[in-house]
Amino acid sequence: MELSWVNKLRIFLVAALGMIVIGILAGPLAVPEDPFAPIRAANIGFVGTAILLILAFAVGFGGYFLAWPHGREIAVMAVPFGLTVWATRSGPMRILTQALNEPQEREALLRAMCFEPFYWLLIVATGFTGVVVAQRLRPSAQPIGTLSQLKASLKPAAYANVAIALVVCTLVAQFFVGVFSQDLTTSDNVMAERLLTNYVAAQPAVGQIIFGVIAAFAVAGFVTKKFLDLTYVWPAIATVFIIPFAKVAYYNAGTIEKFTEIYPATFYPHPVFAILPVQLVSLGALGAILGYWLAVRYEYWRKHESA
């Protein structure tokens, strides 16, 4: 898919559709009682979730026809763009941690955060399902690239490749989120020995989170396509493993207790813990798609234009 001005217009229209329907019209579904508090899945409820799933499917379905004949490549971004509006308007993670003074409370919060990305990934996947259904109703004249790649990766012979992709994406994204999303860091040699970490990260600004998460998963998407020849679906799925992996690596119960005793609630052992699940999944999905197409473009340039 060439990034012509027509395709840029299609991307703009799909992004606008997702932002208006999910980000603005469905925004009241996720508004917490405290307007400064972060947006969380627990704020939405069962009825709100059902409405959100219907809207996500409709946005993916409508986005396919809005971006015709490149709907399958472009419309998958509609729901992530919509959730990005929530991600940017949400209160920061520090609002939650500042309200919790006991280590047990912060540990319970972290356990909840480990599962919440699955909720937001379900919303994104529902939008993708809407694209697939629309594609079945009116197939494009072009070969089905991304969908055929996804089907091929689900065959038993490709399971190992998919598992490698998920592990690589988790590790790559985890590393680059820490590099790109950190705001203020402090170095404390004594505390580094006690907490087994090299630095303590503060709450990054929203703009830093947007750049950091998109860039990190763009790298993961690029690596997945370039070296494993897999689609952007797997880096997007890897968004749900970032917080659990970081919890095991950096933030066990002992570390939480020491952090509670010594540091203010706005400091974390890794920038991942300052990023909300809705931010991680929505921005990570967009980054994965971006990295995938950058890898496609790079391969085309290497074969046809570098000579």
Helix content: 55-70%
Query: How many DSSP helices?
Result: 14
CA gyration radius, whole angstroms: 20 Å
Q: How many domain modules?
A: 1
- Order of strands across the main sheet: 1-2-3
Instruction: List low-confidence stretches.
Output: 189-196
Tertiary shape: globular
Q: Structural class of the secondary elements?
A: mainly alpha
Mean pLDDT: 87
Strand content: under 5%
Tally of strands: 3
Q: How many strands, which pairing sense, and closed or not: the largest β-sheet? A: 3 strands, antiparallel
Order of helices and strands: HHHHHHHHEHEHHHHEH
Provide tags for this entry.
307 residues; mainly alpha; three-stranded antiparallel beta sheet; 14 helices; 2% strand
What does it look like?
This protein is mostly helical and 307 residues long. It has one domain. Helix content is 69%, strand content 2%. It has a three-stranded antiparallel beta sheet, with no helix packed on it. Helix 8 (159-180) runs antiparallel to helix 10. The longest helix has 35 residues, at 103-137. The chain is globular, with a radius of gyration of 20 Å.
